[in-house]
Amino acid sequence: MMSFSALGAAHGAAAIAALGFGLFVLADRKGTSAHRALGAAYVAAMVATNGTALGIYRLTGQIGPFHLLALISLATVARGVAAVLRRRPGWLARHYACMAWSYLGLLSAAAAEAISRAPLAARWVHNGVDGMRLGLVCVAAILLVGFFLVPRLQARALAGAAER
Prior knowledge:
There is one protein chain. By secondary structure, the protein is an all-alpha fold. The longest helix has 36 residues, at 128-163. It has one domain (6-163). It is built from 5 helices and no strands. The protein is globular and about 50 Å long. α2 (33-53) packs antiparallel against α3, α3 packs antiparallel against α4 and α4 runs antiparallel to α5.
């Protein structure tokens, strides 16, 4: 049986908002005022998503791997924002990589959540630990795809930025 809480609802709402804002940021032309505004909304939603994630313990009742992933996600977003604010050599590549990886991490968390709750997963998920294992497999699979996809997309985006 699923349990619901205000913290869980806030986490879900923030994650859905981050998915939407992030999609628009990635799909839109870079460097525009819309990119900056949606990017700021994405960052705020990611901070809320990860902040609330740190307070959720329903899977195992204690700190677990998803808490560590939330801290890594916060650090990745912070590094991407710092790159923009400091504008040191290589900032654009750093910003792109951090934000792309933060979005990929968000997608992997969303997939893990969706798959672990899917009716077909019931044969593998009998408790919180099983759900956590299945979720981590989803995260690993999506991040593995990212290791091939992000550098290619980054090269294309940076080449487009150099043309402008």
